[in-house]
Amino acid sequence: GENVEQHPSTLSVQEGDSAVIKCTYSDSASNYFPWYKQELGKRPQLIIDIRSNVGEKKDQRIAVTLNKTAKHFSLHITETQPEDSAVYFCAASISLGTASKLTFGTGTRLQVTL
Amino acid sequence: EPEVTQTPSHQVTQMGQEVILRCVPISNHLYFYWYRQILGQKVEFLVSFYNNEISEKSEIFDDQFSVERPDGSNFTLKIRSTKLEDSAMYFCASSETPNYGYTFGSGTRLTVV
Questions:
Q1: What are the tens digits of pLDDT across the range B49-64?
Q2: Kind of pairing, strands A10-14 and A108-113?
Q3: Spatial CB neighbours of B45, under 8 Å, sequence gap ≥ 6
Q4: What CA–CA distance (Å, rounded) separates A39 from A83?
Q5: d(CA B83, CA B76)
């Protein structure tokens, strides 16, 4: 089955700096790659996603890039703010008709310091 | 913004007892899921459900687990005989299409003692 690896496990940046989180996946059939932000004790919230027919997507300070050949995708957060502090999870998904499941990475704890 | 609603938010149960976790997916969504997250770990897929049938399940989803859509709005996860290792946060999710736009509920924290 699909395996998603995520690095780094923790990341500390100063406010205003950029943060980059990287994920690799194993199954070349995966075609959907969402990123979730999870604050302590709360639900994962979708912050951005990308489909396999697109190489890059941007939404204000957040961008995701996908390299299908290398089977990796990355989350970029620019001009980080203290409220960006959270755990970020990447995920990969294959849709097979009516079945789909998200395989999550192990998470990155992002700490934005003042 | 539409939400996926889960009840209860926290459930404590004794080992060996049955528990039912409840979810109300977003009304126009057709695909439903359960995931779990053991404290401090990643989110893990349990089961997906469409058209009143399980469409995929993980190795975690053994015979102790079952899902049901008892009426037009609820989606439930039953654990027949809970074990200590079932202690986790259980998230329900729903989506309009099978591979896009999941919305997660706020979770049920299950503690087995």
A1: 998 999 999 999 999 9
A2: parallel
A3: A101, A102, A103, B33, B35, B58
A4: 10
A5: 19
Name the pLDDT band for A100 (thresholds 50, 70, 90): confident
Q: Is the dihedral of CA A19, B95, B12, B10 positive or negative?
A: positive
Chain position carrying tokens 């923790």: A10
At residue A93, the 3 state secondary structure works out as strand
| CA atoms of B39 and A77, how far apart (whole Å) | 26
Among chain B residues, the shortest Cα distance to A40 is held by B40
Distance, CA of B30 to CA of A66 (rounded, Å) = 28
Q: How many beta carbons lie within 10 A of that of residue B99, not counting itself?
A: 21
User: Do B99 and A100 make contact, defined as CB atoms within 8 angstroms?
Assistant: yes
Distance CA A20, CA A13 (A): 10
Name the β-bridge partners of B103. Answer: B94
**Does residue A26 contact residue A2 with C-beta atoms inside 8 Å?**
yes
Q: Do the Cβ atoms of B102 and A43 come within 8 Å?
A: no
Angle B60-B66-B67 (CA atoms, 0-180°, nearest 5)? 115
How far is B106 from chain A, CA to nearest CA, in Å?
A: 5
For residue A89, what are its two tokens?
């999870």
